[in-house]
Design a protein that fits this description.
By secondary structure, the chain is mostly helical. About 65% of the residues lie in helices and about 0% in strands. Helix 6 packs across helix 7. The longest helix is centred in the first third of the chain and has 34 residues, at about 105-140. The radius of gyration is 21 Å and the shape is globular. The two termini are about 35 Å apart.
Length: about 425
Amino acid sequence: MNFIKSNKWTSRLWIVFIVNSVLFSLFLFAVNGEKETSGVYGLRFLQFDAWQDSWGPMYQAIEHLREHPDIPIYTELFFNQKTKFQYPLSSLVLLDLFQQAADIAQVTLFKVLNMASWIFVILSGVASWFILRESHRKTNSGDNVNLASLIPVLAITITFYPLAKSYTLGQIQTTITMLVSLSILAWQWKKPWLAGIFLGICCAIKPQWGVVILWGLLRKEWKFVITSSLTFGVLTLIAVGMYGFQNYLDYLPAVSFMGQRGESYFPNQSVNGLINRILFNGDNLKWHADGFPPYNPTVYGITVIAALIILGFALFWKRNKKADAFCLALLILSLTISSPIAWEHHHGILLPIFALIAPVCTSQKPSGKYTVAFLSTAFFLSSQRLNFTRIFANTYLNFLQSYLFFGAVIVLWLLYKAIQFQQPDSDLSQQKRS
């Protein structure tokens, strides 16, 4: 009975849901008629209201590869047709094979993919609950996180704006968020090989995430390195076999083009988006499906320097400490905010990270109390869409449009604090996982 009986953690989570997802959504609607709130997106999720933001370009790419195998795909779609198909060919493998095996029409395929994404959101919530429970157990503080708390966790999950937005867009990022949630949980359960499989799939969708393999090498996490490398490598080799090596090489100019420009549109919550907007480089209020902001050497230079600093710290900071779920979460979040393009829905990965750090921040141990304010602020900034900040778009206060990015930066700082607090200095060679 104690496992299902409500406790302090359940009450706290219900308060978070009611205040943030219900009351603040109603406040935004009452003040300025705002309809793009976390509460509204939660209702859209429950109504299975989803588009095909990823599925459309991916299906178009598969059709092109089937019908015109000799025409370089990115040269044709990305540069000539101005279609923002931004994924590597390895991201198409599972979708292409499934579509061929099932032999279903495009409309049906999109419905199946969105239903899968709906389930993935729920799985992300369940995984986050397990992460919260495991993290709390290790802090040895207060009441246990029991089964009753799963209900408010799921309520928070479906109203967590970046994740709900990801689902309603019809985004493959929903899959990535689930895989990140499962990889953090796998690491907590001392199964780095399993985390490697999950993140290897992420690397096949986002090749820049290959940095996680370097991270594993630096920390001598061999099981993680082997499974992540094999998963990433096998999917890549299959893609090369299915679509040709030349088509794979054709991805490089597209990656370079995007990396040099990024996006100015305000949902790009990254260093690049912030600098583009501060310098008024491009339209920050309207999405341009067929274009990017003009190349600006200052924007590009700051983006590169910031990425090197952010990722450098994540890779090498306190490398003599045993790698744990906090270190893994730190690297994943660093990869996200340092990317030239990190849309709002890319920040859905913050949900399991909040579950990971909340018990540490709310514990009564030294340096825990004052971090609650930072945790609450970060959650508020990360879980809502604050559309009213658009009024600053054409002013020098447009940096306020990067509220979600600032929330993510606070979480990054909390992760550094958590790692320092959780782990004593030790000889890595003497504390390897079995």
